[in-house]
Amino acid sequence: MPGENLTREEARERAALLSVDGYEVALDLRSAVGDGDGDGGGETRTFRSVTTIRFRCNEPGAASFADLIAPNVTSVTLNGKDLDPGEVFDGSRILLEDLAAENELTVDARCAYSRTGEGMHRFVDPEDDEVYLYTQYEPADARRVFANFEQPDLKAPYRFEVQAPEGWTVWSNGAGELAEGVWRFAETKPISTYITCVVAGPYHYVTDSYERTFEDGTKLEIPLGALCRKGLSPYFDADDVFLVTKQGLDFFHDHFDYPYPFGKYDQAFVPEYNLGAMENPGLVTFREEYIFRGKVTQASYEARANVVLHEMAHMWFGDLVTMEWWDDLWLKESFADFMGTFANVGATRFTDAWITFANRRKAWAYRADQLPSTHPVTADIRDLQDAKLNFDGITYAKGASVLKQLVAYVGEDAFLEGARRYFKRNAYGNTRLGDLLSVLAETSGRDMTAWAHSWLQTAGVNSLTPQVLLDAEGRVAELAVVQEAPEAYPEERPHRIAVGLYRRTPEGALTRYARVETDVEGPRTVVADLAGAEAPELVLVNDDDLTYCKIRFDETSLATLRGHLGALTDPLARALCWSALWNMTRDALLPARDFVDLVLRFGGRESDIGVLQMLHTWAHSALVHYADPAWRATGGELLAEGALRELRAARAGSEHQLAWARFFATAASAEADLALLKDLLDGAETIEGLEVDQELRWSFLEPLAAHGVADESVLAAELARDDTASGKRHQVRCLAARPSQAVKAQAWAQLVEGDSLSNALVEATIAGFDQPSQRELTAPYAEKYFAAIARLWQERSIQIGMDVVRGLFPSFQDRQETLDATDAWLTAHADAAPALRRLVLEARDDLARSLRGQTCDAAAARA
């Protein structure tokens, strides 16, 4: 058998052969606490998992297989006959031969607790030595916890029962009760394996309830719960989580006309989580970093609300109606990404969430869509490794952007009515692209075939540039929009856009005085309705962010932004201009030093805190990746000076002050700047209104560690001050950041030679290891990287493999020799796993883009 990597064809064959009536899963998790593994010793800590599956086969006598990844299988019984585990189980699959029309399979196994965030993750809290468990399965890790048919289109109801250590609480998808030492949970609706869930441990748990009376008089009551580790309970603002949850449930009930179908609604914030969150029906899991231990800006609360609503949208898009195979992953992720922002704007206090979407989410999509691994929104997913890597900016943010364009194309009412019909027709079933397109064609009256081909079945991002001709009187004689497509993906798409014309007022504000919505098709579209308008100082194509494209500027508009970007009064228009300027920097059309200059001149006037924090990220990236290496030191000094100036000028206690403080720490490298950070930590100096809480202390300590100012003893003392799981992650990152050959060698050995770190500590070590200020120190590891990654990919779980291959790529060794070494590895490893090659190809593309940007920046210095 071919091991863990299920292919699409195997899944199709199995789905054609089998249908599943139900699962009964019994887990004994008492081995999670104490010494040993509970099964007589051994290095791997395991738990008992007993699964009974009732399923039908439409070709009696045929053979198939069940999925299970486990260290040991005690027994396998098929239709009352005991099978020899040594003969039928190969470590990832259980061979099932001579199937009957109706079958019952029982598998008794020892499954392994995980330290990688995959399957049943076991976390020991260093603060109090308490053990916390949770499961995470997407796309195919339920088989690490119980035997199953691990593919999304073999849905079934589940009954879970769990034995846990005394004093623990256990949660699953359905409501649970503890009786005679066993937690038993209500049977679920038919759902896919990857959204089943178990959370167990001494979690802090808060409850509430949601009630709704519908127009027909029926009432719906949903028990609400929210949980986190006990150590985080002092920081847990469950009331705000419940507020957004209730607002979201109201919003989706209003718009979907389909009551929430999964009973209770628990939300668990869990440690060492690989994802942002996961939409398990009735028990959504989130990374615990959404519980804020220190002061954060409103952008963080908005982001959390967006994730809460994103996962809630999945209850319909993904859980109730599920894609047949991972090709159509967009049928849940693109919709949830769009709906998260749609609901945030429509139901919560975060009414400017579309600005964040335009500035942050689309930046993710634009980057992904220009990589060599770009793909259509509906992707070609050959196997589970492909699926794992396709949780990317295309599937999420580009798909959501396309749906925003679709709403503009067919109208909001038609779009939502299509969603309502889609739910009712396909409830508890599986769908493909055509199922959605057919209902949208019904509700909109439009032929969706051409739209779907252009937007869902082709890759690449178009660029839209205005062309303005003025008449003798200085008015617009003709305004056209030129569309360009990349050579590799020459599709010119239909775009519904708004074109905005802007001029400065006598008071100096840059405001819009004309706006026209139009359809852009083909290489050049004339916007006839703008003829005769006053000459614009700025033309903003895709005003209001209706479509998915890269915005370009004519010469006059670019000159206006260089001189007056801060005068642009509309926050969404300003965010779109910043995004366009960043794309130009990445495309080597705008020198990195010019982008840094724009941020230094106008960033302090940015009112939207989320945009400001994104500008900080981009400015840092411009400096360390795209700036001429000869200018980096100068640019770093300018960024640090500007950040400190804005920090001191910001209103005391404001979120802008906090954002500039964090950015100053990122930029600090000069002796005086590092001394200031140290004084702020020690209390020798203060800035009015700036509270240096524990999280900000760690933000200040990382640059101090990276520049050799904070040594191991300082970091140990800080850990003693913050002896928590969060503190440990911060300390590990700072320890790996120290500028020492011995430190780098130790970190490399832990990541590459050993396998003792949990997923969270792998992430922290990687973050500390590769510092842009330590290029010479980490240069020897470029060759070691290419020598190690093939072996790593074979030996580690796919999650850890992805983290290490991405995180340790020598991106700061930004010279032609590194690019050549990457190409040599790709040539020599043509037969490597496609997922591994994809990761290396993506990193190569980023490196090549950096070198082009540096060439552009150097040319600007010579001009």
A few lines on this structure:
The chain is built from 28 helices and 28 strands.
Key terms for this structure?
28 helices; 43% helix; 863 residues; 12-stranded mixed beta sheet; alpha+beta
Helical proportion? 40-55%
Mean pLDDT: 96
Number of helices: 28
Largest sheet: 12 strands, mixed
Structural class: alpha+beta
Poorly predicted runs: 37-42
> What shape does the CA trace take?
globular
Percentage of β-strand residues: 15-25%
Q: How far apart, in Å, are the first and last alpha carbons?
A: 62 Å
Q: Tell how many strands the DSSP assignment holds.
A: 28
The radius of gyration over CA amounts to 28 Å
Describe this structure in words.
With about 850 residues, the protein is an alpha+beta fold. Strands 1, 2, 4, 5, 7, 8, 9, 10, 11, 12, 13 and 14 form a 12-stranded mixed β-sheet that branches. A hairpin with a 2-residue loop joins β12 (about 175-180) and β13 (about 180-185). α9 (about 410-425) crosses α10 (about 435-445), α15 runs parallel beside α17 (about 655-665) and α21 runs parallel beside α23 (about 760-770). The radius of gyration is 28 Å and the shape is globular. Mean pLDDT is about 95; it is low at about 35-40.
List the helices and strands and how they pair.
Layout: H1 8-17, E1 18-28, E2 46-57, E3 64-67, E4 72-78, E5 81-83, H2 85-88, E6 93-96, E7 102-114, E8 119-124, E9 131-136, E10 158-163, E11 169-172, E12 176-179, E13 182-185, E14 198-201, E15 204-213, E16 219-228, H3 238-256, E17 265-270, E18 277-278, E19 283-287, H4 298-314, E20 322-323, H5 330-347, H6 353-369, H7 384-389, H8 394-410, H9 412-426, E21 430-431, H10 433-444, H11 448-456, E22 463-470, E23 476-484, E24 495-504, E25 510-520, E26 524-526, E27 538-541, E28 550-551, H12 555-564, H13 571-586, H14 592-602, H15 609-626, H16 632-649, H17 655-667, H18 671-682, H19 694-706, H20 712-721, H21 725-737, H22 741-753, H23 759-769, H24 775-778, H25 781-795, H26 798-807, H27 816-828, H28 834-862
Parallel strand pairs: 1-10, 7-8, 16-17, 17-19, 20-21, 22-28
Antiparallel strand pairs: 1-2, 2-7, 3-6, 4-5, 4-7, 8-9, 9-14, 10-13, 11-14, 12-13, 15-16, 18-19, 22-23, 23-26, 24-25, 24-27
Helix pairs in contact: 3-4, 3-5, 4-5, 5-8, 6-8, 6-13, 8-9, 9-10, 13-15, 14-15, 15-16, 15-17, 16-17, 17-19, 18-19, 19-21, 20-21, 21-23, 22-23, 23-26, 25-26, 27-28
